[in-house]
Amino acid sequence: MKIEDLKDKKIAIIGLGMEGLDILSYLKKNGLQASVFDSKTQEELGENFTKAESLGANFILGENYLSNLSNFNVIFRSPGVKILLPEIAEAEKRGVLVTSSANLFFSSCRGKIIGVTGTKGKGTTSTLIFNILKNSFNNAFIGGNVGLPMLSFLDEVKENDFVVLELSSFQLQDLKTSPHIAVVLNITSEHLDYHATRDEYIRAKQSIVCWQKKEDFTIINGDYYEPIKFSRLTPAKKYFFSRFRKLEEGAFINGENIVIKIGDAEKIICRRQDLILRGEHNLENVCAASLAAFLAGAKTESITEEVKKFKGLEHRLEFVDERNGIKYYNDSFATTPEASIAAIRSFTEPIILIVGGSKKGSDFSELGKEIFSSSVKTLILIGDTAAEIKKASEEASFKGKIIEGCKNMEEIFKNTEDSAKPGDIILLSPACASFGMFKNYKDRGNQFKSQVL
Questions:
Q1: Is 107 in the same domain as 81?
Q2: Is 237 assigned to a binding site?
Q3: One domain, residues 273 and 357
């Protein structure tokens, strides 16, 4: 489906977030109008309503907002809107085309798309690929969940340009085209408050490879079972990356070196100690990004230069400051137990860990074991999951100090400083979403940083 296919169609957009506005703006640019459906009221939508109104949108808002979807020809579903909602399913059954901005982008993009998915590390990997391609080719784009909304730059993309897209399960769920280079990082459990089951979540991710062609490339984390299964779903040329073993082809860690090997050619990108990025898990992201950029034609010198100077992303194990011999790290983007486990493993120094948040069906038993076996000396438990994380940690025999009941970041921070000594790490790595005490993970991380700086 391309933009010209939408002429004379009645178009609905469900969800007026960033992506909903992006769709509306692109349609307006091409002389098309749409109706916006959202469960929020005009007051709740605030600035987004004002922007949409200026773009000529009609509105169906509030309770029962999905009651007349079958009156439309095309529905654009925003990523946060469940595809299996009964009203959407009924409209589709009646012949309404249900699609997304990702489908429109993929069908219309003139350049070559590099798509990155996984449970964690997507943003870091996507951004590093983009930085390398910009260094090597000058003209590259980045969008999806990082960078700009993808339709906002669609018309600027030329035939030989590369576009790097970070793709979530929400965006991949109904995608009907796969990227030229698909990067599959590790896949665990997440968004079980959105997806009915873990299997449904994984199936949603599979669109990144299942529409590929023989001339495409798939880059897969070879250290874990779930991503390896994706290799069976694509006819593309497959390469793996690993931080645990040397590979016949792909990207891997060989002693202290990060290496790419394609055929008989083996290239050392840099040494591990050359990286500014902290965390063993980030070696996987560096391997994946280096390999993707190499297959896209980037120069080895560009890969090395960008990898060595890459500091990572804000709120992703971000070094904030050092005060009185105490180092502060903001890992607010860690919204799963697996992400926080990776953060904890990045340090050997004593850790005061700020952890907890809103519930989304996660199992904290492995996190509890990691807390016990690691250098964590103090737990500051926050949010709705505090009791679950406390139970998991105590069942794993954690005997360190546990602090509960903090109501805001100021209280949290006071307790961390009361417990900290020179040489300690104060680590915000919540293992949970942020809703409740904070607006979102950015607000949580920014509040933490404002206490430090």
A1: no
A2: no
A3: no
Going residue by residue through the chain, which has 453 residues, state the pLDDT in tens, using 9 for 90 and above: 889 999 999 999 999 999 999 999 999 999 999 999 999 999 999 999 999 999 999 999 998 899 888 899 999 998 878 887 889 989 999 999 999 999 999 999 999 999 999 988 899 999 999 999 999 998 899 998 888 999 999 999 999 999 999 998 888 888 999 999 999 999 875 554 555 677 777 888 899 999 999 999 999 999 999 999 999 999 999 999 999 999 999 999 999 999 999 998 999 999 998 998 888 889 999 999 999 999 999 999 999 999 999 988 889 888 888 899 999 999 999 998 988 998 999 898 999 999 999 887 889 999 999 999 999 999 999 999 999 999 999 999 999 999 999 989 999 999 988 889 999 999 999 999 887 789 899 999 999 999 998
- Is 0.90 surpassed by the pTM of this model? no
- Pull the structure tokens for residue 46: 């605030």
Looking from the CA of 355 toward its CB, the CA atoms found within 13 Å total 30
Give the total number of structural domains in the chain.
3
Identify the CA nearest to 120 among candidates 252, 234, 344, 284.
Answer: 284
Per the structure block, which two tokens stand in for 115? 């798509």
Q: Is 123 annotated as a binding residue?
A: yes
CATH of the domain at 50: 3.40.50.720
Same domain? For 195 and 219 the reply is yes
Statement to judge: residues 254 and 368 lie in one domain: no
Whether residue 361 is annotated as binding a ligand: the answer is no
> Annotation-wise, does 124 bind a ligand?
yes
List CB contacts of 439: < 8 A, sequence separation 6 or more.
none
Give strand ranges (E) for 272-334.
318-323, 326-330
Q: Report the phi/psi class of residue 423: left, alpha or beta, with left for phi > 0 and alpha for psi in -120 to 50.
A: left
Contacts 24+ apart (CB under 8 A), 232-235: 233/206, 233/209, 234/178, 234/182, 234/209, 234/210
29 is in an annotated binding site: no
Find out whether 255 is annotated in a ligand binding site: no
CATH number at residue 439: 3.90.190.20
The response to whether 407 counts as a known ligand-binding position is no
Are residues 33 and 115 part of one domain? no
Q: What is the DSSP string of 244-273?
A: SS--SSEEEEETTEEEEEETTEEEEEEEGG
122, 306 in Cβ contact below 8 A? no
